[in-house]
Amino acid sequence: MTETPDQQPTLPFAAGALAGLPGATPAQPTAVLPEITQPHAHTSVLSTEQVTAPLPGSAPTTTLAPMAAPDPTTAPATASMPAPAGQPVFAPAQMSAPAGRPAPTAVPYAQQQPPQVPQAAQHGPQAPQRPAQHPTVPQAAKQPREARQGPPFRIALTILQLAAIGPVGSMLVTTLFGSFGLGIGLSLLLGVGLLLLVALVYAVFGVAWFESQRISGLYGIAVPTIVWQPQTEPGFKAWFKALCQQAINGRMWRSVANFVIASLMGMGVLWLAQGFVHGLISMFNTTSSVLQPGIVGMLLCGGAIVGLALLHRIVSVAILGSAVAEEQLETQVRVTSQQREGAVRAADVERTRIERDLHDGVQPRLVSVAMTLGLAQQKIETDPAGAKELVAEAHTSTKAAITELRQLARGIYASVLDDRGLDAALSALAARSHIPVQLDVRLADRYERTAEAAIYFAIAESLTNAAKHSRASECRVMVRERSDGMLWARVEDNGIGNARVVAGGGLDGIMNRVLAAGGTTRLDSPQGGPTTLEVSVPCAF
Question: Where do Low complexity bias regions lie (predicted)?
Fold first, then answer.
């Protein structure tokens, strides 16, 4: 069959396909498609094998003619499926490729690779990951603004900003300094000037914040944001203390100094702009005595304006860029101080717990053993049988005391962490728990000893609290290594909730130990439960 543009194609198997419909003309028992030799360029060709249509008055059947084994390089593998009653079945052969395109190569089913199952589908929920950047975000949006703006654009924008800041900044700086002198004078005479000084601190803070944001947006450099000093506690005294700390904040005054310098440069830009305009006007003068000096003056003024713009960048980076290193140093000092304080508090809490366990557990049991052996010593001659029973009782108490000492030593540090790692230690911990524990640990390697110990004791204390205080009947423990290099653990129970951090308590010890390891904790325990504790510590230092 060949299709022409003026003639619709006729399908020889149409009668067989419509044989099962009511009122259709009975078709021949079989319909064979003739071989297609020259398909039209715009026609998709489908060749089939022998098709059997149902005979009138008989049950519809579908049979396939015997086919040779397909070549794996030329024909796709097919799977036989039962056909619905009354419908013909076609065995597709290889399709003809359009002119200019290579024929598609089918892969046999036996050689096809099974679909890859995502990691989350194979192993259940994963640890929370850092949110990935959306793939459709343009790369330029992720780069600093300085990388997206060319030097001519930045220079032009700097010149415009300096021209705008020049007169406005000069008036603002004059007003601020005048208000400062007036406030000092009135405060010495009448005391009313204190209100003016308070308003002056807020105004200077606003100028400093504006300048830091302007430089950061203009040059794309990391300038620390100017923030107001927080109050440590409510009340007028704490507010006044925060106000005084803000008034002597060096970072704020550096931004103000840069704003004053920018105002002076802005006035210089406006003065040079006048000379540039005069030189530009002189270009339209035909007199050579006026034209040549005008051009020279215009070039000199333009170059000086560009030089001021470049100098403004150098000065701004020198004044405000140093605040970045200062802020990083302050952050490191603050974190180190917090870790040191956490380690000291964790040691105090641990020492208090050991003293309490020895005083309440092992010590009374050892005293009981000594008293029992003393009674046995007195009865050993008069009542040997009774003395024997007392010795047996002392022996039992001694073994119980040894067990308590082992548990106490395990609470100080679990030796299984060094021997077999965190996974095995948590498995042993879950086996000793008084309530059922669903343990889900997926760790690829051993980690730093401090990190493993922090995770282990956090989970151990959580399981103890769940058994003693929360009335939980089940606990779920999940441990993962996150992609950001943090060892993450989550403990959740179905208890009554309402867990609180008490100074010297178990949760306080957990947080101090994790803080000393450089990690963070998050406790969520509403009234009625459930209680969830999440711990994250760095895998290595």
Answer: 9-31, 59-84, 102-135
Closest CA to 255 of 339, 195, 321: 321
Please tell me the distance from the alpha carbon of residue 264 to that of residue 261, in angstroms, as a whole number: 5
Residue 409 one-letter amino acid: A
- Count the residues in the chain: 541
Q: How open is the CA angle 400-457-454, to the nearest 5 degrees? A: 150
Token digits of residue 430: 């879950």
- What is the amino acid identity at position 430? A
Q: Please list the ranges in the chain whose pLDDT falls under 70.
A: 1-150, 185, 187-193, 282, 285-292, 294, 322-327, 339, 342-343, 346-350, 353, 355-357, 359-362, 407, 409-415, 504, 540-541
In degrees rounded to 5, what are phi and psi of residue 303?
-65, -40
**Do 349 and 504 meet the contact criterion of CB atoms below 8 Å apart?**
yes
User: Where does 374-519 show beta strands of DSSP type E?
Assistant: 437-442, 475-481, 486-493
404 vs 358: CA distance, rounded Å: 9
Whether the Cβ atoms of residue 242 and residue 231 lie closer than 8 Å to each other: yes
Please tell me the distance from the alpha carbon of residue 117 to that of residue 191, in angstroms, as a whole number: 76
Cα dist from 193 to 177, 184, 199, 204, 522, whole Å: 14, 6, 10, 16, 48
Query: How far, in whole angstroms, is CA 279 from its chain's centroid?
Result: 57
**CA separation for the pair 52, 61 (Å, rounded):** 8
- Could you tell me the sign of the dihedral formed by the alpha carbons of 246, 251, 257, 262, in that order? negative
Strand ranges inside 133-181, DSSP E: none
223, exposed or middle or buried, with CB in 10 Å at 0-12, 13-18, 19+? buried
Per-residue pLDDT reduced to its tens digit, 379-409: 888 888 888 888 888 888 888 778 777 767 6
**DSSP, res 110:** G
Q: Which residues pair with 64 in a beta bridge?
A: 51
Task: State the amino acid at position 158 in one-letter form.
Answer: T
* Residue 144 one-letter amino acid: P
C-alpha 299/C-alpha 282 separation (Å) is 12
CA 131, CA 64: separation in Å to the nearest integer? 55
Backbone angles phi, psi at 459, to 5 degrees: -70, -40
CA torsion sign, 236 to 237 to 238 to 244? Answer: positive
Distance of CA 309 to the CA centre of its chain: 39
C-alpha distance from residue 37 to each of 3, 45, 48 (Å): 11, 10, 14
C-beta of residue 423 within 8 angstroms of C-beta of residue 441: yes
What's the pLDDT tens digit per position in 201-233? 888 888 888 888 888 888 877 777 777 877 777
